[in-house]
Amino acid sequence: MSRTISRRLLVAAAAGTALALSFASSAYAEVKLNFLVDNAPATVKASEALAAAFHAKNPDITIEVESRAAGGEGDNIVKTRLATGEMTDVFMYNSGSLFHALNPQQNMLDLTDEPYQSDIMDSFKSVVSENGRIYGAPFQMAYGGGVLYNKKIYAELGLSVPKTWADFMKNNAVIKEKTKAAPVIQTFKDTWTSQLFFLGDFYNVLQAVPTFPADFTANKAKFATTPAAIKGFEHQAEVFKAGYLNEDFGSASFDDGLRMVAKGEGVHYPMITFAFGNIFENYKDNINDVGFFALPSDDATKNGLTAWMANGIYGYAQTEHPAEVKKFIAFVASKEGCDAQTEAVGAIGPYMSKSCTLPADVAPAIKDLVAYFAEGGKNAPALEFLSPVKGPALEQITVEIGSGIRSPIDGAKLYDEDVRKQALQLALPGWE
Amino acid sequence: MNIQGKKGTRRGLAAAYPSWFYLPAAIIFGVLFLFPTFASLFFSLTRWTLFQYSFIGLDNFRQFFSEPFLVWGLVNTLIYAVVTSGSKVVLGMLLGILLTSNVMVRGLLRAIVFFPVLVSTIGVGITFTMLMHPTNGLINDVIATFGVKGPAWLTDPRFALLSVAFVDVWKGVGLATVIYIAGIVSIPAEYYEAAKMDGANALQRFWNITLPLARPATITVIILSLIGGLRSFDLIWAMTKGGPGFTTDVVASVIYKQYQAGFYGLSTAGNVVLFVLVAAIVVPLSFALNRKEVEA
Prior knowledge:
The complex is a heterodimer. By secondary structure, chain A is an alpha/beta fold. Chain A contains 21 helices and 14 strands. Chain A has helices spanning 7-10, 12-27, 41-57, 71-83, 97-100, 104-107, 122-126, 151-157, 165-178, 196-199, 202-208, 212-217, 227-241, 254-263, 275-282, 322-333, 335-345, 364-373, 383-386, 394-402, 408-425; strands spanning 2-4, 31-38, 61-68, 90-93, 129-130, 133-134, 136-139, 143-150, 182-184, 266-272, 290-294, 305-308, 311-315, 379-381. In chain A, helix 3 packs across helix 17 (335-345), helix 11 (202-208) packs across helix 13 and helix 20 runs antiparallel to helix 21 (408-425). A two-stranded antiparallel ribbon of chain B has the order 1-2. Helix content of chain B is 74%, strand content 2%. Chain B is mainly alpha-helical. Strand 1 of chain A pairs antiparallel with strand 2 (52-55) of chain B, so a sheet runs across the interface.
């Protein structure tokens, strides 16, 4: 019963013009491409640097950077523009589960046969592929989800980086007793920041139940009935009950959290490492006081990092200039592209192209992060890169669990219910 | 014969506008109002990703009514609508009486009461979010000077909804006051003079003259603020985003969250539900209030 709304019909006239223009463009060398990115300052800065570097090398192609809101609002902008045939020639978007929701086979240029694909890590290619075809190239770097911590306070108190949850709680007890700083920072004004205890714990879930992503996608495993999977919720509730949170956790913002961990007003901040970019921008003086470790697990020998793949850069299927678009995407994925980004916003994580390298003098937190990605490092992708299903209400649920409004088990049940809607929307088999 | 002739004239007048004359207005109405209405009714019966849709009957409505927070959101919506509407009636009437009496600088006071109505709701929301911050907000700073520790207005589930309702009243009471001023001014002064002659005190004059005769104003304020309260969204979104967690979610914010998550069919179904809900409450209420007025 599924029907495709003929966008072609809607934009028939535009497409006709587009065709005419694409013939014209080979005759006239000057080409202007629009590049849609999210409005995070670091993203815009990196994109503009890429555009400038590319233009310097290809004077006949100009890239115009256009920015949009991030988060759910941004998702809607991208989907609406694709649905109405108004997408820019090139655009950045998430890889993984959100990527699949964009209907790549209909909307994106196929990049499977591009020469640079051999230089890109397989783990990244897998999160921008559908039915064996590759639609994206890496833009920006990979991230980790774990705990930012204040190294200065750790040194003062003689603490060591915890690998088990028990050690983590012991450190918190010491911090609470001996300092004025909050042992754990939570910032529920920006609700997305509340999810890290849960999302960042996925490496540990995967160690305990390796088949979880497949079973979960097939509606055979639930968070509420998988003890390892519910632990993230339980940890969050435990930290709240012990009174380890900053006093204003309900109304503090993401930026407040970064200030607290950088300046030592708080010690542990569960976060995704793209936060490094903001610390570089806003708290440069304290950059060497911040370190990073993966969320602790039950077993010290099995501790590792939950990794977020880099964002993707994609070509719009109906662009007037597919050749130029592919050329630009190739540049972004190349070593030159990586270097242009590093120069603009600093290195805040590993690149997904094998030929790209990081400068030697990166900040301590980046060294901590890169160690998990290096040879022998332990990391696994976050669940959203292994399953297309992610419930949209997770951030509200984690706020409730993290402020004691709801118990972990109730939260898990509610999340299972939330996830069902997404699975139905994607028409996955096994869900009713 | 004469009557028929009149009718004929009227028909003749109607025909003075040829049918095509209605066409531009009809096209605008059809394209901008009729088509979206029926399209949304249709899409509320589908699972819709913007790229493709499949017809699923009433499943969206079933899902919407089984949303764990819908019931909670409905309760919140009703609490919010009743609290804001009730406060606007009471405060609006009191301010209306004050501002129609011979107080000093009456014009200035009227302007001050009306001023918040002119400010953008989002701006008001952001401002009050800062004022109500638990540790560095102005409100708690003031309370602290009395040695009392103020609550976390917007992040404590017990206070959050009422805090937003308070701001809504602060912002909307000016409009209610203006309506009351108009209603009270239109009451003939002779009634008050006669009552004074009969020895009625101020309270009796209020109870027996102002209250009943300002009834049309009261009905207008109730209906307007109730509709506003039932579909309120912008202030709640600016101040709490339905949080902490889901505790201040109202029907409109539940709908918006479904839309944000990309469940377009589901959120459209929610809009149909909200439309029916507002109509089901306001139409009978307006009917009942106005009928009583006629009887009186």
